[in-house]
Amino acid sequence: xxxxxxxxxxxxxxxxxxxxxxxxxxxxxxxxxxxxxxxxxxxxxxxxxxxxxxxxxxxxxxxxxxxxxxxxxxxxxxxxxxxxxxxxxxxxxxxxxxxxxxxxxxxxxxxxxxxxxxxxxxxxxxxxxxxxxxxxxxxxxxxxxxxxxxxxxxxxxxxxxxxxxxxxxxxxxxxxxxxxxxxxxxxxxxxxxxxxxxxxxxxxxxxxxxxxxxxxxxxxxxxxxxxxxxxxxxxxxxxxxxxxxxxxxxxxxxxxxxxxxxxxxxxxxxxxxxxxxxxxxxxxxxxxxxxxxxxxxxxxxxxxxxx
Length: 307
Fold this sequence. Notes:
Pfam families: Sigma70_r2, Sigma70_r4_2. One of its GO terms (biological process) is DNA-templated transcription initiation. By secondary structure, the chain is of the alpha+beta class. The chain has two domains: 3-159, Butyryl-CoA Dehydrogenase, subunit A, domain 3 (Up-down Bundle), CATH 1.20.140; 167-303, Nuclear Transport Factor 2, Chain: A (Roll). Helix content is 54%, strand content 14%. It has helices at residues 3-22, 25-41, 49-73, 95-102, 104-110, 115-126, 131-138, 142-159, 167-183, 186-192, 217-231, 292-303; strands at residues 193-202, 214-215, 237-243, 246-252, 258-267, 270-277. It has a six-stranded mixed β-sheet with strand order 2-1-6-5-4-3. β4 (246-252) and β5 (258-267) form a beta hairpin. The model has no long low-confidence stretch (mean pLDDT 93).
């Protein structure tokens, strides 16, 4: 097998590692490309190509994350990970860990960790690398990596909900949710929402978003039912899709361009969090991006038919 073939075989794994460390599709793709350039120019053939490439992409991702954190501190409004529809890497033996680590909630918990803790957690707890491989990847001793892993695991466990819904429950609740918002059924929607449900949006200052958040079942239900039933009037559509391994949707304009994504967290039989990403910088990998401001203006006009 040539180097090129070996790399392409491992590309899904490398992207999956980088995306979880960085929370950004574009940055993860750049990290994978930089990994290929380093591998291509390396004179020696590593004993384990998988271990070598995983270490390289991890180190690149750690460096990118350290510089990205400065940018994220100056980010306009809430920062959410770039949405992803499918994970390119599959491993039946670790399917539960891979799915859980892909959710918006898990990626935001990872944001609380230091870059090293994040990398160690991703390699060890998500992808099941052994500690010698983790230590080699992050350039620390095995003992230090065990401490980093324990600390990261503690932070992640502290932030995780105790009784998360199973896949079937999430899907059933999401189907009822999208029916209710499409029909403008405020009462039906309110029944599906947790009392303290929170809706937050990431527009990056470049698209309309609920940057301050909307909190409470009554408030969230009123906001959603004031917007979504109007979308059909402007030929926009809500396309239910799995987003980051959880129920969600893509909002498209009349030309099929992406306006935003929606991801839903379910807990205790109710929708707990609704996260919307409308920043055009975070949607380009999903297809052509719409002018979200123009769509918002159309929605407002459609809501005032006699204006």
